[in-house]
Amino acid sequence: xxxxxxxxxxxxxxxxxxxxxxxxxxxxxxxxxxxxxxxxxxxxxxxxxxxxxxxxxxxxxxxxxxxxxxxxxxxxxxxxxxxxxxxxxxxxxxxxxxxxxxxxxxxxxxxxxxxxxxxxxxxxxxxxxxxxxxxxxxxxxxxxxxxxxxxxxxxxxxxxxxxxxxxxxxxxxxxxxxxxxxxxxxxxxxxxxxxxxxxxxxxxxxxxxxxxxxxxxxxxxxxxxxxxxxxxxxxxxxxxxxxxxxxxxxx
Length: 251
What we know:
Blueprint: H1 2-22, E1 29-34, E2 42-43, E3 50-51, E4 55-56, H2 58-70, E5 73-78, H3 82-91, E6 95-101, E7 110-125, H4 136-139, E8 144-147, H5 151-158, E9 164-166, H6 170-178, E10 183-188, H7 190-197, E11 204-219, H8 224-239, H9 242-250
Parallel strand pairs: 1-5, 1-6, 8-9, 8-10
Antiparallel strand pairs: 2-4, 3-5, 6-11, 7-10, 7-11
Helix pairs in contact: 2-8
């Protein structure tokens, strides 16, 4: 009798432990979207469209391993522009977007897994430019280039500034050296990485005005189970040193 009870209890516990996985349909899949945002996510061939193994970068490698450990299927596509990817993820169930900067303004719009990486927001000036500002308010008198619907641009706009938004952040490198903008509001180290690709070095950091964290943003209709399993996988990767190793490999 006792053995029968133990066996019954074991079966019950086993079923409860497995129930979290059973809640997802067998064909469940997350549609992951990303963009060229080096060194965090980028097309191997530097083009504006890529799929699956044609995408690499710090965040891309981490997200792949997260999904593998969580046992959740996915598709991964790199597209352009960011504004379109952002709106697709807002509107479509089971869509996810990375690397997405976590902000209080965006917090209620998505479900979040992270942080995947840390960055800083900066104002950059062209080589040899001696502009000096002590705050964003000081910078408001200058022409500031930014990336449309990016968290940096959204932050500037929320503070009353009017950045000149480009559809590709790389465009701001050219605008800066041509004198079409005075300052470039971007993410560090992304800005310097993009500038180097355009053979531009020696940019001057005029102001570092915020520290930020990059996350995987999931559509609000994503099952909580998916979020929990992915977060658990990410926490394990961090504790094992996987994230530090990947980051060091790229930087």
